[in-house]
Amino acid sequence: MLKAGRVTVNGKKEKSAKLQIDEERDEIIFDGQVLEYEEFVYYMMNKPKGVISATEDPKHRTVLDLLDDLARSKEVFPVGRLDIDTHGLLLLTNDGQLAHALLSPKRHVDKTYQAQVKGIMTQEDVEIFAKGIPLKDFTCRPAKLEIVSIDTEKIQSQIRVTIAEGKFHQVKRMVAYCGKEVVDLQRLTMGTLVLDENLQRGEWRRLTKEELEVLLASIA
């Protein structure tokens, strides 16, 4: 590409790959298009069921398998984990500092989930969630439980749960503590990020400039 004269640096055709450039100040144009330097990338994914939140796995497809080659080449990783049978919002990035800040127990970043529950959730359950549920290995911080709808015929409830932690199977275990069972779980939000309703399961996109600015400001 260089030898064919398809690259210009600061307006001059450049044929040597040895030229040192300042990625912040020099203008590089390839085939008439200005190239933008980016150290970090940020992708929002609507994770489907059946794939795992990891960079590699010998048995299952991972969320990285859903990305294209260019996105994968940025060496991104999922920020936090969603169970293999949980779907919804997942952030992927190569920004380790941001990931650490979002996952830090000290920051208590809120995450909201929508769940389909086998059983009827009650106002008593709302109060139990608000107090903090004592599980076998840890006590959950107070959480917000909203009952979205109840189907008395099917004996099912649809709920929203907001937690400030992200322990293993936490939402499922909290619901089980109340004597009910989660049959479908979707993450809707993480901090300031909200799942894009236009993203089908398995689809992903870059964060918008506004989404990224608000997210970075929230952990500053």
Automatic annotation (TrEMBL):
This is Pseudouridine synthase. Keywords: Isomerase, RNA-binding. NCBIfam families: pseudouridine synthase. It comes from the Bacteria. Its EC number is 5.4.99.-. The gene is rsuA1. Gene3D superfamilies: Alpha-L RNA-binding motif (3.30.70.1560), Pseudouridine synthase I, catalytic domain, N-terminal subdomain (3.30.70.580), RNA-binding S4 domain (3.10.290.10). It holds the Pfam family PseudoU_synth_2. Belongs to the pseudouridine synthase RsuA family. The keyword Transmembrane does not apply. Residues 42-176 form the Pseudouridine synthase RsuA/RluA-like domain. Signal peptide: none annotated. InterPro entries: PsdUridine_s_RsuA/RluB/E/F_cat (IPR042092), PsdUridine_synth_cat_dom_sf (IPR020103), PsdUridine_synth_RsuA/RluA (IPR006145), PsdUridine_synth_RsuA/RluB/E/F (IPR000748), PsdUridine_synth_RsuA/RluB_CS (IPR018496), RsuA_PseudoU_synthase (IPR050343), S4_RNA-bd_sf (IPR036986), TruA/RsuA/RluB/E/F_N (IPR020094).
